[in-house]
Amino acid sequence: MNKYPFGSNNPKSFNAYPRGDVDIESRTIKRTRSRKSSIYPVRMVKSWANRLHYYYKLHPLFVFSISLAFRVTILIVLSLYEQHYRVLSNYLKLDDGFGSYYPFAKLKNLVMVAGHSVYTSSSCEKADKEDSWFLESYQKNPGQAATFLAHIKEGIESTALDDEALLLFSGGETRKDAGPRSEAQSYWTVADSKGWFGIGAVDYYYEEY
């Protein structure tokens, strides 16, 4: 007689068949079908396409407006990206050509010679004569032209003594009757004709304003 009643827990119990489908007649185990994901990319795309087609039939104007807005947004984003890329490219070019944009980067001091008149003579041989300069009535004094020359030469000599100094001639086209000539260019022309820039190593520049 069975020692263990029917339905009781048999300590030697075991699973008669592994998990899966079993063919009892042939006593063979069928391979279990692997569960496939319920989301398929292709079906998903087709589903969205069908939905859009359905909505387009119901509301063609609305779908067209959404599509147009989407395209305009893409164009704006691409345009902003291109503009940002151009600005970045120009910044990199400026950074690479730093030396060409700032040729006097090593200089720290400035010697500025302010212009007070426009040189009108066709020859620089008489630069110390008052009639070679366009003078206002209050400037027509003996020795006025010589003062201009002394001022120019002093600026050049002061710059030559300082290796980190830049000489700047300033002064624009302040005299209408003197023609398209500036005070700064007049001072530079006189100094160049005198050969004063040969005094030491002088870096110079003239600003017209």
Structure overview:
The chain has about 210 residues and is of the alpha/beta class. It has two domains: about 40-100; about 110-205, no CATH class. The chain is about 40% helix and about 10% strand. The protein contains five helices and seven strands; from the N terminus they run ββαααβββαβαβ. It has a three-stranded parallel β-sheet. It has a two-stranded antiparallel sheet with strand order 1-2. α1 (about 40-60) packs across α2. It is elongated. The termini are far apart.
Lateral strand order in the biggest sheet: 3-6-7
In total, the number of domains comes to 2
Strand content: 5-15%
Poorly predicted runs of 5 or more residues: none
Oligomerization: single chain
One letter per element, helices H and strands E, the order comes to EEHHHEEEHEHE
Secondary-structure content class: alpha/beta
N→C terminal distance: 125 Å
Biggest sheet layout: 3 strands, parallel
